[in-house]
Amino acid sequence: xxxxxxxxxxxxxxxxxxxxxxxxxxxxxxxxxxxxxxxxxxxxxxxxxxxxxxxxxxxxxxxxxxxxxxxxxxxxxxxxxxxxxxxxxxxxxxxxxxxxxxxxxxxxxxxxxxxxxxxxxxxxxxxxxxxxxxxxxxxxxxxxxxxxxxxxxxxxxxxxxxxxxxxxxxxxxxxxxxxxxxxxxxxxxxxxxxxxxxxxxxxxxxxxxxxxxxxxxxxxxxxxxxxxxxxxxxxxxxxxxxxxxxxxxxxxxxxxxxxxxxxxxxxxxxxxxxxxxxxxxxxxxxxxxxxxxxxxxxxxxxxxxxxxxxxxxxxxxxxxxxxxxxxxxxxxxxxxxxxxxxxxxxxxxxxxxxxxxxxxxxxxxxxxxxxxxxxxxxxxxxxxxxxxxxxx
Length: 392
Description:
Elements: H1 2-25, H2 36-53, H3 58-94, E1 99-100, H4 111-122, E2 131-132, H5 135-175, H6 177-180, H7 186-191, H8 204-228, H9 244-260, H10 267-287, H11 306-316, H12 325-335, H13 339-349, H14 365-368, H15 381-391
Antiparallel strand pairs: 1-2
Helix pairs in contact: 1-3, 2-3, 3-4, 3-5, 5-8, 8-10, 9-10, 9-12, 10-13
């Protein structure tokens, strides 16, 4: 029995240290099918998402989704701490519980004392009411106290890194609100960048190139940060109609339109942004073990006449779009490079994919924000433009 406790204790310590190193310290994709973190998320996310999908009210459902990311991070830290505590307690038990505990009657089991000593040592409480009576116990107490301090230091350093990466991700998504709508769509993105401008100001094409360059870097940052810390994928955006997945897919949609159907100077940058964005999307799908959906399983976001509606909207906005059969065939071929992976991630994370065309009378998130000063009328862009015309 003592031998089994010794082996189990060492196994707990080894698995926790290895898992914490791969999850926090190692700056690359963690590997291993039997990692604590992987098993933890498999056992918690699947039932949580299944329960959340049954909720009918959208706001309540999104709130439950948003709780999981930060909650799972704290719960994972708790699991690591519990396993470390248990591992050292089993080692003390395997050593014969070599402690003097005034609260325990002679001849009684010392297992609870082993856990008590392990807990006070790991969390550096140091009450001193229980005294070790063997040299090996003292050595393990010193080792556990050092691991306790290291654990606290890792937690203090880990949380800021995670939330800094989350903040960087969300800034670009928030900026996309006024540039592509809420939720973002490829049609709205191209429409809002189809404007001329007198020299020396930038026109819509130049502004679109700058935007695509920013999203190429954003995709690279997403690839680096979210593969190192996959739990960030569970973190939801501030608004219910926004997500990192919908923003990424909307940018990919716009890129293939610029490559296949719109002839202007932004096509080259669209190719670079598409390559980086698709790389991030596919790698993240592989991190979560999500196989790409088959064509029959994917939602056809351009079906039901959406292609004609999109072409009409872009043409009215002054975007020269090519609608021949060859351009449409190229478009569908490029969609097949990323949409199956996007559908798999959408089903796994519960994040809906964006449409190609915005819903009628859809408002951006900044237009839905209530005014902080009561009595002031909300001035929409349409009414503001109407007042400007009346003034002339």
